[in-house]
Design a protein that fits this description.
The chain is an alpha/beta fold. Helix content is 44%, strand content 19%. The protein is globular. Bound molecules: 5'-O-[(R)-(carboxyoxy)(hydroxy)phosphoryl]adenosine and zinc ion.
Length: 350
């Protein structure tokens, strides 16, 4: 067996409907395997926690084995196990945590229980290198829309903005359902939007003007746009009009991407951040990526958006955050930890 000088970290992700396992060594991704239970939820229109938990239990060992095989390693080579321990669905987190504890305890490895949302920011290191201190992170997913100030990825993360109601992905998924797309509908809206006119319909951009914007400079609210689009669809249907689906999708995507990118870039200017890192499943969205890049270029802010496979839930994000914890000498998580489905976003490690 070749001896290796750097920590080799196996990361486990199981917060929602993806069982992800990946291995990282020296800031390099050696393997990443994701099994998704998404198709099992499609007919219910959203993730059913019990079905997702069972799917994690079934996928866990095969995905771990595949990740080791792809990296050409066996478990004895692994020095540290990292697992996402919140926020997320309680049953899903319990499966990942139990599996991680079993592996770490059984083979006497160090264990870190890390924050899933912060891991979405940490994963950018794999593609772009270390995150400069003081960078801002925009994390947009099915469950979160957050602006974080990253002073130190493992020890000092501050929440500067959040959604007051629906997350961006949640808003897209709900509208997609009304348009008859299967779950998760975000990627369908993205695809149809490519053929539509983003200015065909005007939807409300909440918390961007006047007193509400002053009171919530970095917060978001997407329930207003969701309701406006839903009303538009219902009215057209009631009047027997044909709905121009590409125009609805393009106008919705424009509105959400405009608010997210404007507020994120403004926050960078206000807080003197020269780098904006972006993560979470919704950051795969074409309009958001375009608008962030355009506005970032104009403002002289470097925008780091990882490739789509690193944006959606995966084990690599957990492994790289675990590796940062080892390198920063963060005390490991106790073996008897309980995952926290409502883990605060400024808590990096349990
Ligand atoms: O981060 P993620 O994989 O899981 C959560 O932690 O929620 O994000 C999933 C969300 C879903 O709402 C999905 O519809 C959305 O990301 N999404 C997209 C796109 N790809 C994924 N939304 C818009 N455009 C996309 N291309
Ligand atoms: Zn996520």
């Amino acid at each position: 067996m070749v001896s290796r000088s750097k920590p080799i970290v196996l990361g486990i992700e199981s917060t929602c409907d993806e069982t992800g396992v990946a291995i990282v060594e020296g800031g390099e991704l050696l393997s990443s395997v994701v099994a998704s239970s998404m198709d099992m939820h499609a007919r219910y229109g959203g993730v059913i926690p019990e079905i997702a938990s069972r799917a994690h239990a079934e996928a866990f060992l095969p995905v771990v084995k595949q990740a080791l095989e792809d990296a050409d390693l066996d478990f004895s080579n692994i020095s540290t196990v990292a697992v996402s321990c919140g926020p997320g669905l309680a049953g899903c987190l319990a499966v990942g945590a139990a599996g991680a504890k079993g592996l770490a305890y059984g083979a006497n490895k160090t264990l870190y229980g890390v924050n899933h949302v912060i891991a979405h920011a940490a994963v950018t290191k794999l593609q772009f290198g270390p995150v400069p201190s003081g960078s801002l992170a925009l994390i947009v997913s099915g469950g979160h829309t957050s602006l974080l100030q990253i002073n130190n990825m493992t020890s000092s993360v501050k929440v500067i903005g959040t959604t007051l109601d629906d997350a961006a992905g949640e808003c897209f998924d709900k509208i997609a359902r009304l348009l008859g797309f299967p779950y998760p509908g975000g990627p369908y809206i993205d695809r149809y939007a490519q053929q539509g006119d983003p200015h065909a319909l005007k939807f409300p951009e909440a918390l961007t003007q006047g007193r509400s914007a002053a009171a919530h400079p970095y917060d978001f609210s997407f329930s207003g746009v969701k309701t406006a689009v839903a009303r538009y669809i219902e009215t057209q249907q009631a009047e027997g009009n044909e709905i121009n689906v590409p125009d609805v999708c393009a106008s919705l995507a424009f509105c959400v991407a405009d608010v997210l990118s404007r507020k994120a870039i403004k926050a960078c200017q206000d807080l003197n951040a020269s780098t904006l890192i972006v993560g979470g499943g919704f950051s795969a969205n074409t309009q958001l990526r375009q608008q962030l890049k355009e506005k970032g270029e104009k403002a002289g802010i470097e925008v780091r958006i990882p490739r789509p496979a690193l944006c959606t839930d995966n084990g690599a994000m957990i492994a790289i955050l675990g590796e940062m914890c080892v390198l920063d000498k963060i005390p490991p998580t106790r073996m008897n930890f309980s995952p926290n489905s409502t883990m605060a976003l400024d808590q990096v490690v349990l």
